[in-house]
Amino acid sequence: MNKATFCSFLYVFLAGGSVIAAWAAAEWRWNGQFELLGGAEVTRSQVAALLPPPDQPLYLLDPVPIRRELETIPIVKTAVVRRWLFPSRLAIEIKERKPYAKLTIMPSANYNRYLDQEGYVFTTRQALVTPPVTVIASIADQLLQQRSDLVKLIAFWPKGSPVSVDARDPQGWQLLARRLRILIGAP
């Protein structure tokens, strides 16, 4: 082997070793730190419980499964997870669902349940500002089966107009708007 070939081999070996040493350095390891942006109702502890354990190389953390896990929280509409190498951290941006209707499941009306404009049911830790639409139902599962009908009804109703939708009777719903009662046939 001639001197030029040996020097080239040595340079490649040293450069490759330097890259491997840099990737294994502590600065590239995720220490469990993350930024949480946009989450008013979602707590840091909820997010931390869904994250992988720390002390892994940050470049091995896949943001897609983390995003999917975060979107299983009912109030989370979308989540964006980014990896930052300098300094080593995760940045998590959460967009929460906006309540369009207050959901009251009879007979226990103690929970803070809401519907967004797409008909998704979510709960909150504390009561939010009461939206103008209230939906009264006896069984949450029955209401979820009729989600598309409810979404059409909510989309039809003028924004900001107070109304209650009584969906307890499977034969038909009642709309109560001010002093007006509107009966709607079976959905």
Account of the protein in words:
It is a single chain. The chain has five helices and twelve strands. The protein has helices at residues 3-24, 44-50, 63-70, 140-145, 147-156; strands at 29-30, 34-37, 56-57, 76-84, 89-96, 101-105, 113-115, 121-123, 133-137, 163-166, 173-177, 180-184. It has a seven-stranded mixed sheet with strand order 8-7-6-9-10-11-12. A three-stranded mixed sheet has the order 2-5-4. β10 and β11 (173-177) form a beta hairpin. The longest helix is centred in the N-terminal third of the chain and has 22 residues, at 3-24. The termini are far apart.
- The biggest beta sheet, please? 7 strands, mixed
Provide the structure class.
alpha/beta
By DSSP (H or I, 4+ residues per run), the number of helices equals 5
Query: How much of the sequence is in beta strands?
Result: 25-35%
Helix percentage range: 25-40%
SSE order, one letter for each helix or strand: HEEHEHEEEEEEHHEEE
